[in-house]
Amino acid sequence: MRPRAAEIRPLLQLALPLILGEIGWMTMGIVDAMMVGRVSAEAMSGVGVAGILFFTVVIFGLGVLLGLDTLVSQAHGAGRADDTRKSLHAGLWMTLPLAAVLMALQLASVPVMRMIGVNPAIFDQAVPYTESVVFSTWPLLVYACFRRYLQGINRPGPVMFALVSANLVNAGANWLLIFGNLGFPAMGTEGAGWATTVSRVYLALVLLIAAMPVAQPGDHPWTPSWTRMRAIFAIGFPASLQLLAEVGVFALATALISKLDATQAAAHQIALGVVSYSFMVPLGLSAAAAVRVGHQIGAGNRPSAAAAGWTAILLGAGFMACAGLVFISAPRLISRAFTPDETVIAAAVPLLAWGALFQLFDGAQGVAVGAMRGAGETRAAAITHFLGYWIVGLPLGWYLCFQRGWGAPGLWAGLCVALIAIGVTLTIVWLRLVRSWATVLP
After folding, report:
1. Which residue of 67, 196, 220, 224 could cross-link 236, Cys pair, CB 3.0 to 4.6 Å?
2. Contact at 8 Å (CB) between 122 and 165?
């Protein structure tokens, strides 16, 4: 078997640009929270609630397109460049019906927020954000297609550039549209939604330009391949369910906490933003693991595929363990970067403590999901996430929050238990998958 140490360099060469890209992606959300937070705690909470509901809906489309990871990376590993482009074209066709359905569902989230009893002050800030950010759906799906394709053919550089530079576009548009600078109207949370839309159009255009030189005269992008679209959907649908289970539980937790008060809701947004930020490193490693495992399987080298997966999992878990130590050591300093409100800062400290406890396990499960996706296995993660979050974590968190009077820390405790269970389970699933490969090797 190829030594795991030998896999570190090629893995990191692919992963580091993707990690920087993921950090760039998350930074846009953090900057949004910081800038809107200067308006009011209600505005920050409203954007947080609307934003996570947006992703709860759109994550289905993004998850379906994850099928491109498997098809593109394995075809690239086998040296079939024409096949990688065929998958890209099929993915782009899929964005059209996906965007139409997802936009309708996002607009339907407005009455849902009212039905579940979101605090009226927070609701009033969430609605205008939802009604403007909905127009970013199709550009986001197009960006996702080009991203999966480019990283699958081992070209992560444009992805990193697009996401890092998009922060300048987003921050500038926020400055103009949230606060009304340079003669623009002060639109508050609605302006934040339009700024996000502008930045996502920018992302799609940058990756379109990056992918254009790869096109060949024999390509027929305007002819949809129904067979290829079905193949993408077959792999991506379970992945979308896994993402939906994960994002959906945090969305529901956010909505439930918003029923408490603005202080706890704002503290939740801070803690959620921080743990999401740290997760960008294993998320980048996960994408790299999917590509590396796919390349090696496409080349017929399963021992190297196993080494790639294990290396990425160990790196992801190790980084997240270090992040947990930072959360425990400086929770007030971290929280103060988001708000000067001492009451909100004090409420965020115990949430960061719970977040610190699940960091190692979150890193392991996040990377294991990518490694398995590179091998074409997406069902196990979907089942594990559903059981861990919805059968164990959320009911426990709800009980501690509302029945035992723990408030927001109660919900975080339930999510912590879920992530520990998911991390352990998916690591075992990956181990069993690798061992099964050994039984079929010549």
Report:
1. 67
2. no
Q: How far is CA 265 from the centre of its chain?
A: 21
Cα 248 to chain center, whole Å?
A: 12
Give the model confidence (pLDDT) of 23-73 as tens digits. 877 778 778 877 887 788 788 778 878 887 888 889 899 999 999 999 999
Q: Helix 81-115 crosses helix 137-152 at what angle (to 10 degrees)? A: 150
Name the token pair of 61: 């489309």
Q: How far is residue 435's CA from residue 51's CA, in Å, rounded to a whole number?
A: 40
Do residues 338 and 319 make contact, with C-beta atoms less than 8 angstroms apart? no
| Single-letter residue type at 395 | P
The CA-CA-CA angle for residues 98, 103, 108, to 5°, reads 130
Place of tokens 């969305």: 251
Contact 338, 33 (CB under 8 A): yes
Cα separation, 334 vs 29, whole angstroms: 16
Whether this model's pTM surpasses 0.70: yes
What does R_g of the chain's alpha carbons equal in angstroms? 21
For range 339-349, the mean pLDDT: 91
Q: What is the share, in percent, of the chain residues with pLDDT greater than 90?
A: 65
Handedness of CA 52, 58, 59, 60 (dihedral sign): positive
The secondary structure element, H or E, covering residue 301 is none
Which one-letter DSSP state was computed for residue 404?
Answer: S
Please report where in the chains the tokens 């300093």 appear, as a residue.
333
Instruction: Output the CA–CA distances (angstroms, integers) from residue 399 to 324, 396, 407, 413, 416, in the order listed.
Output: 25, 5, 10, 10, 14
Strands (E), 68-156: none
Other Cβ atoms within 10 Å of 220 Cβ, number: 10
Among 435, 146, 154, which Cα is nearest to 294's?
154
DSSP type of residue 339: -
Structure tokens, 39: 């308006």
In the chain, domain spans: 4-438
**Taking every pair of C-alpha atoms in the chain, what is the biggest distance, in angstroms?**
70
Query: In 3D, which of 358, 197, 262, 327 has the Cα closest to residue 48?
Result: 262
Residue 94: which of 235, 242, 228 has the closest Cα? 228
Q: Is the Cβ–Cβ distance between 299 and 78 less than 8 Å?
A: yes
Q: What is the DSSP string of 240-293?
A: HHHHHHHHHHHHHHHHHHTTT-HHHHHHHHHHHHHHHHHTHHHHHHHHHHHHHH
Query: Rounded to an integer, what distance in angstroms lies between the CA atom of residue 15 and that of residue 292?
Result: 10
